[in-house]
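Thanks for the sequence, V.! I ran Alginate lyase right away. Repeating your input here for the record:
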Amino acid sequence: MKFLNQGSFTLSFSQKKWLAAIAVVFFSIMGSTQAAIAKTSPNLVVTVADVKNMRAAIKEDGQFKRTFIASKASVDEQIKRAIIVPMPQDGGGGYTHERHKKNYKLMYDAGIIYQLTQDEKYANYVRDMLLIYADLYPTLPLHPKRKMGKQSPGKLFWQSLNEAMWLVYTSQAYDLVIPSLSTKEKTKIETGLFRPMANFLSVESPQTFNKVHNHGTWATAAVGMTGYVLGEQEWVEQALYDLDKSGKGGFLRQLDELFSPQGYYNEGPYYQRYALMPFVTFAKVIQANQPERKIFEYRDGILLKAIDTTIQLSYNKLFFPINDAIKSKGIDTIELVNGVAIAYGLTKDAGLLDIAKQQNEIILTGDGLKVAQALDRQLEQPYQFKSVAFGDGNDGKQGALVVMRQNVNGEQAVLFKPTGQGLGHGHFDKLTWQFYDKGAEIVSDYGAARFLNVEAKFGGRYLPENQTWAKQTIAHNTVVVDEKSHFNANVKMGNANHPELLFFDKNEQVTISSAKIDSAYEGVLLKRTMALIKLPLQNKPGQEQSLVIDVFNIESNKAHQYDLPVHYKGHLISTDFTLDTQLTSLSALGKENGYQHLWLKAQAQPKAGLSQITWLNDNGRFYTSSAVMDGDSSLIFTQIGANDPLFNLRNENAFIHRKAKAKNHTFVSVLEPHGEYNPSKEFTISAVSSIENLSHQKVNNIDVVEINFVGNQRYLLAFNSANNIEKEQSNSFSVNGINYKFEGRFKLFSIK
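Predicted structure:
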């Protein structure tokens, strides 16, 4: 896209006549092109055929009609008020920022209502607002709150990302009202608003437009969709293949690079749902305009896989909060509402209707109509959440995000994270884990340090503590060596290295996974194996016990300090060792790398053997972490909040297993849910752990964890985490004079 330089120049009389003739031809062609578009508009996410079906649907009782009535009432209320298009001046969450966001949503909603009612007042409202923006946009400099050197700046918004989002919605609003506009109105709106904005997001912002990143996805989607609306196929090609159409960037390259073959997005679930909107929206537009591209079949149906994977990466309707995640985001987010509707429209998968029912939101599109009508007919089937290792990287071999699930008196899930870094939004937390049970987070991840769109809190942006705490390794449930973060908190180094998934396997009782990394610290090998287990209780027929077994092995040629934190949700109930608690004053645990934000609350040095820590979660269940201690290791109890002058951080608790001055060490622990506390009915059941003894030993290449329960119930979990073993490899070992055998990677033995 090239635009005339607006500097001063003079023309001869003959040149003026020549340009006038060209202008006549240009506007004649433009008028005929727009006339052709008008006959087929709308034709982006909502098509002419969709409108016909939707108009019929709002005459019949059902969810779609109810949604239409509610949306129309909302739009009617808003369009009574004066149109407000303020001069941009606020950052994220500020008044002008939020006003421009409301405007694009209002224009889109009014455009939909216009198509469904054919009442011109809605189209006129969109027209009037677009004309104001067409006057304003050419006058705008770069946004006054831009952060130079960090994000690509916008004009309406502090970053171009929001500008692209605005155009994704507003291009659709324009497409919806084109039939009502005069040629003069279309010319002003396009030349004053859409063409300069598309040019700004592409030609003037190549560093973002060509970037393989979610910011690039929004930009390419915005420009490509506008290209379809304005009949600019060249813009579409640039959106698909990079500004120079080399294929080094662009939408298709983003599909190639940002998703693994299973549909896992490199930045994690939170940004997967965010990036999903431009991916599925632009794809839907491509399908409507150029079905021959078969975009939803591209790369073996990667977009449909991505939608399903986004759902799979949730628990109790909330996304697993790895990397820079806001923990309150879940499956009802509008991005996934759109994704589920589009996926159902293509696949008719009844499991997706279950998710749509939980989302409890119908969108006014052709696919939204299909979902609404199917739900009216009660066609939904339970969505199947699974235990899966989602390969990371475009080849699926750059580590994995492992989800383990089971149901024992409530749904349990373990999230094990031997993934890649996740670009700039990634955290330095290789081999970390989280645990969920009975609808609640038990072993937690902090997520992002940010008050999203709360301008009063650092402009709604990421807080400084996102760097000094949330991204640092000690903020996560994984090993910290010498109080330094993985890769020394260097994003470039983190992106260049990733863990290796050694195996993922499961049967009816056990789901288990193992991974390693030797690049997080120079000269140190970290290897972790985690298992989610469902034990039949020998003395209680028909009942089962859920357990998480964790074996974390560290090897080095030099002595180091190894810290393994467990960030837990709940109130500490008891320990089976004496605590040296700080009663009158607190000090920070360290000076940097996140340690400066931890208050040292208590310390202990348990005796060799079993040590246990029990806490009570708000879900009414007790949790005991049982660990194997060597008599030389210590435990440190902490709370977040030190060196936090503006109270930016949540005051959450953790305990840290510390092994000092060691070359090699293995942390072994078992997490045990148990009992019930019911304050309403005033009863407590099984508040004490049933584990009486815990041991670990290495027999050749076989790790053996033995767990003894009250009542002489004993179990052995044996696993082989060596590299590249045969799937049906025969393994044998001897413990306490008894010989054991198993094939493959693991086996759970019940000892009687």
